Each structure stands twice: as structure tokens, then as C-alpha cells.
Amino acid sequence: MTRTPSLADRLGHVTAQATFVQAALLAAHGAGARSGGFRASDVRFFFLLFTNWAEHDVTRPSQDIDLTQVRRTLERLCRSRWAEPMEGGGR
């Protein structure tokens, strides 16, 4: 039986920020539960919020995340069936 790779292993580029990305994905999912989903911009908002709280944005200002990176991450999660895209492309 093989071990399931961690999110950091599966997503490559965001390895350094994997904890913040995971937290942002969970927060966006929770915040969008009543409205039926979330957008990539919601994930980026929570990522910036959490890195600000941890002062990660001060100690490592060059490690920001683009909406393109978030979209690619969400696409990879959908391809690997860890997530499902919304019908209609968003909220």
C-alpha cells in the first residue's frame, strides 16, 4: 500500500507556502459553503490574510501567490479528484 503524497508534494511550486495554501483552501471552502462554492480570488485573499497574521509577508515578502498559481492548484486538485469544479464555473 502506497502512502498518499502530501499536498506539498502534489502541488510542487507552492511547497514553501503549503501550510498557508492548505489553510486558505479550507477557509475559502468553509466561507463559501452557503453560497455554493468559492473562487480562486477567495483562496488568495485567505492566503494573504494568514501570511499577514503570521508576519510571513514581512519576513519573506517575495513569496506571494498569484491567482494563476491558485487556479493551477485548484485544477490539479480537480484532476486528481481531491476537489470538484462548480457547474457554471463559479458562484
The proportion of residues forming helix, as a percent range, comes to 40-55%
- Compute the number of helices: 5
Number of strands: 0
List low-confidence stretches. none
Largest sheet: none
Helix-strand sequence: HHHHH
**Overall geometry:** globular
Which strand-content bin applies to the residues?
under 5%
Helix-strand category: mainly alpha
Average pLDDT reading = 79
Radius of gyration: 13 Å
Ends apart, CA distance between termini = 38 Å
Structure description:
The chain has five helices and no strands. The protein is mainly α and 91 residues long. Helix 2 (18-31) packs across helix 3 and helix 3 (40-53) packs across helix 5 (67-79). The model has no long low-confidence stretch (mean pLDDT 79).
Brief rundown of the structure:
The protein is mostly helical.
Q: Which tags fit this structure?
A:
91 residues, mainly alpha, 55% helix
Q: Can you lay out the helices and strands and say which pair or pack?
A:
Elements: H1 7-11, H2 18-31, H3 40-53, H4 56-59, H5 67-79
Helix pairs in contact: 2-3, 3-5
